[in-house]
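debug: dumping io for the single-chain case to check the tokenizer round-trip. Nothing else runs in this session.
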Amino acid sequence: MKVLMFGWEFPPHISGGLGTACFGLTKGLSHFDVEMIFVVPKTYGDEDQSFLKLRDAGDVEIDSYLVEKKEFWEKLTYLEVESHIKPYISPEIYETLYEEEKVDHKEMKKKAFSRKFKFTGKYGKNLIEEVYRYSVIAAKVATEHEFELIHSHDWLTYPAGIMAKSISGKPLVIHVHATEYDRSGESVNPDVFKIEKQGMEAADRVITVSNLTRRIVVEKYGINPDKVVTVHNAVEPYTYKHIDYTKNLKEKIVTFLGRITFQKGPEYFVEAAHKVLKKDPNVRFVMAGSGDMMNKMILRAAELGITTKFHFAGFLKGPDVFKMFSMSDVYVMPSVSEPFGISPLEAMSSNVPVIVSKQSGVSEILTHAIKVDFWDVDAIADSIYALLNYKSLPDTFRKYGKTEVENLKWENAAYKVVQVYKSAIEEEVNL
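debug: decoded output
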């Protein structure tokens, strides 16, 4: 089976779990004779292409005849939104950008159709322009390759998937790794919501990473539940076996690792840390990540007087993630709304007991993890204290947790995705 796949990032150049999931899934799909052409905005030359072919969108040349067609422009009109968009933007920053900067659509069209486009592959202020251009690239790529199905990961590539489908007539599967409701709560960015909804409506099948996300897709976006399928994520086996580190600390370490944004609930981690330190001062807390709430969290830690016991490590990836886990005694993910959450699985594979919010997709499949409501700071603090002070509890979670995650293989997730592919192709053939 040949699949044309669109994604916004691919390891080792990632900003979060999306790239990690794409890597694991595509590697898993390769075990089922799925040939993949994976298009990203920008390649760097150090990606693992042993099981797929990566295409750099910046290396694709656009034919002028393609963009002169009236129907081509009609298909692109839905992308002409009135603001710059970032995937993890806060409602406050969005409002500021909306008022201060508006996209000049005429200028965008003028700049868009040079022979080749150059993409940063980042999440900067020109993101919507890159999404716009990327969808044009998708149309061209769809004319250059033979494939049976299109697979688009997350909202940034839904327009590309729609364009590829309109050019090729092949079925489209979109993969919902997160929705705007996860990123912003009820204060959704209307432009992102619009792109997400159009992608879901245009798709022949919608894959969600959890039942939690599936409910959001069906209830908030009004999508027919018959075409929405849940395929839980998995975890890539721990590969950094020879990491040398020196802890140099007598205290136990509790870690938060993720974007420091509304969605991830960092404020609940800070408040829980304060409560734990009142009972057990022999602990250090680490917040690893970056995001628009970082300054707020630094100020809150200072207000609570815990800065000598609270550290901000910045964004970590690759070996640094597992080095952090190697030093950790407890991992906490207090997400407000987490479609899935791969990092707890990575922590468990590193023998670290985990605490996850009940509002996360990963809680649907884990048995050997403590599950709490994200807002229940007392429960989070009590759970941390128990794991740090009652030896039998973390020993049990380490023993059975590692075995549990070892059975969560990407090959199993990939098998389910292949069944989704087959059903979409068969339906197309029978129409």
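debug: round-trip ok. The radius of gyration is 22 Å.
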